[in-house]
């Protein structure tokens, strides 16, 4: 009998445990706790900006060419060479031009000899004409030959000056101090300058000062002005932000795939020589900047306490009055927007939530300027996340997602309408 009673006692205890487990895991409602996400207003800079892409280029680049044709005889610089103004860069074979110069010199000697003969002849003819030994026609003919010989000497002298100038142009000198970015020729290569001047070298004047040529969309160009601040990054240094300033907005548009862009020049310091010509830059131009202003996250202006918040916290606001069945809160206001400004929700030290009306200014979709209505000691609610005992995890609730009314939830947050 004792054994039978003991068996029934074991079954009874097991049944109670099973019923308790079923109730705990399947019937009992999970208690949900919430944690408000708050932030204090801060003082700082708030700005509006536009983005664009562009390329890094030297401020001043000179293309060095040749005005004479010939074979490149010598090269004295290469890529990345540092050069000074007046430094010899290359020579074109001068032999052909030297031969032409010698020929013109010979022609000049011949012209001078002819001039000397005609000078003697005109003197003799002048004396004969004075005594009546020759006619006026003979004297005029001698005078014409003398003048022609004198003009011929002047013409050959001009040819010689041109030949000497062309001969000097076989020596290519640097016009500026700078760095050789590109060399387009090699020794032994023939260059011809018949129709256009061939480029031998590209020299950047000063690589410590660079400019970014940004392509700004026509929808944004109206806000871009000379003197505005800009920042940009390059792929070579993705974690480093380079600073610059808008120096020029060019009026000539470029059209690509039916998109109109305007070239905007941004000057940047390159003292560290990290920026290289041709790098692609991702640019941010700050079109409006306010410094030392009070600002809060935009999410704070969209937060609205829902029924779950009302169950856990005391709400002191004419916006929310009474309680409906099922835990739903009756709202007397539609959202946080008012005729004279925007509203935010503030939590006090005694965990009381109250509504404050504020006047706002500029916003950049992330932060918004507060003109009046708040102090830096106010604790502003931006949303909340739920804390589950079973899961031990919380889920942040976005104030921009639609809200469910009443009951317990696995996640929650501030609802609200548009600002």
From TrEMBL:
<comment type="similarity">
    <text>Belongs to the membrane fusion protein (MFP) (TC 8.A.1) family.</text>
</comment>
<feature type="domain" description="Multidrug resistance protein MdtA-like barrel-sandwich hybrid">
    <location>
        <begin position="61"/>
        <end position="198"/>
    </location>
</feature>
<feature type="domain" description="YknX-like beta-barrel">
    <location>
        <begin position="210"/>
        <end position="285"/>
    </location>
</feature>
<feature type="compositionally biased region" description="Low complexity">
    <location>
        <begin position="389"/>
        <end position="398"/>
    </location>
</feature>
<dbReference type="InterPro" id="IPR058625">
    <property type="entry name" value="MdtA-like_BSH"/>
</dbReference>
<dbReference type="GO" id="GO:0015562">
    <property type="term" value="F:efflux transmembrane transporter activity"/>
</dbReference>
<dbReference type="Pfam" id="PF25876">
    <property type="entry name" value="HH_MFP_RND"/>
</dbReference>
<dbReference type="InterPro" id="IPR006143">
    <property type="entry name" value="RND_pump_MFP"/>
</dbReference>
<dbReference type="GO" id="GO:1990281">
    <property type="term" value="C:efflux pump complex"/>
</dbReference>
<protein>
    <submittedName>
        <fullName>Secretion protein HylD</fullName>
    </submittedName>
</protein>
<keyword id="KW-0472">Membrane</keyword>
<feature type="transmembrane region" description="Helical">
    <location>
        <begin position="9"/>
        <end position="27"/>
    </location>
</feature>
<feature type="domain" description="Multidrug resistance protein MdtA-like alpha-helical hairpin">
    <location>
        <begin position="101"/>
        <end position="169"/>
    </location>
</feature>
<feature type="region of interest" description="Disordered">
    <location>
        <begin position="320"/>
        <end position="341"/>
    </location>
</feature>
<dbReference type="Pfam" id="PF25990">
    <property type="entry name" value="Beta-barrel_YknX"/>
</dbReference>
<dbReference type="InterPro" id="IPR058624">
    <property type="entry name" value="MdtA-like_HH"/>
</dbReference>
<feature type="region of interest" description="Disordered">
    <location>
        <begin position="388"/>
        <end position="419"/>
    </location>
</feature>
<feature type="compositionally biased region" description="Gly residues">
    <location>
        <begin position="404"/>
        <end position="419"/>
    </location>
</feature>
<dbReference type="InterPro" id="IPR058636">
    <property type="entry name" value="Beta-barrel_YknX"/>
</dbReference>
<dbReference type="Pfam" id="PF25917">
    <property type="entry name" value="BSH_RND"/>
</dbReference>
<keyword id="KW-0812">Transmembrane</keyword>
<keyword id="KW-1133">Transmembrane helix</keyword>
């Amino acid at each position: 009998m004792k054994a039978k009673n003991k068996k029934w006692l074991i079954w009874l205890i097991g049944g109670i445990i099973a019923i308790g487990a079923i109730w705990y895991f399947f019937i009992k409602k999970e208690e949900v706790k919430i944690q408000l996400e708050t932030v204090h207003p801060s003082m700082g800079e708030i700005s509006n900006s536009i983005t664009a892409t562009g390329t890094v280029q030297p401020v001043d680049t000179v293309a060095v060419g040749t005005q004479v044709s010939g074979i490149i005889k010598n090269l004295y610089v290469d890529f990345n060479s540092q050069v000074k103004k007046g430094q010899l860069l290359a020579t074109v074979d001068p032999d052909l031009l030297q031969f032409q110069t010698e020929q013109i010199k010979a022609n000049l000697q011949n012209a001078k000899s002819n001039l000397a003969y005609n000078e003697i002849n005109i003197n003799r003819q002048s004396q004969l004409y004075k005594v009546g030994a020759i006619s006026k026609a003979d004297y005029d003919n001698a005078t014409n030959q003398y003048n022609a010989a004198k003009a011929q000497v002047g013409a050959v002298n001009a040819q010689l000056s041109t030949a000497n100038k062309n001969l000097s142009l076989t020596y290519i000198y640097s016009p500026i101090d700078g760095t050789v970015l590109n060399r387009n020729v090699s020794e032994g290569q023939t260059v011809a300058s018949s129709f256009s001047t061939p480029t031998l070298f590209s020299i950047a004047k000063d690589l410590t000062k660079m400019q970014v040529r940004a392509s700004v969309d026509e929808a944004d160009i109206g806000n871009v002005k000379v003197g505005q601040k800009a920042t940009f990054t390059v792929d070579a240094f993705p974690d480093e932000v380079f600073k610059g300033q808008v120096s020029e907005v060019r009026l000539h548009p470029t059209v690509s795939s039916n998109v109109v862009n305007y070239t905007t020049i941004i000057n940047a310091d390159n003292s560290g020589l990290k920026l290289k010509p041709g790098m692609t830059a991702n640019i941010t131009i700050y079109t409006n900047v306010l410094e030392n202003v009070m600002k809060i996250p935009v999410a704070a202006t969209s937060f609205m306490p829902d029924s779950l918040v009302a169950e856990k916290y005391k709400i002191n606001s004419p916006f929310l009055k009474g309680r409906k069945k099922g835990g739903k809160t009756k709202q007397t206001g539609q959202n946080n927007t008012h005729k004279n400004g925007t509203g935010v929700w503030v939590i006090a030290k005694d965990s009381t939530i109250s509504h404050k009306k504020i006047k706002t200014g500029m916003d950049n979709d992330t932060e918004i300027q507060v003109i009046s209505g708040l102090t830096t000691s106010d604790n502003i609610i931006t949303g909340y996340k739920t804390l589950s005992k079973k899961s031990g995890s919380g889920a942040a609730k976005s104030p921009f997602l639609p809200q469910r009314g009443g009951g317990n939830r696995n996640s929650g947050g501030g609802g609200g309408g548009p600002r």
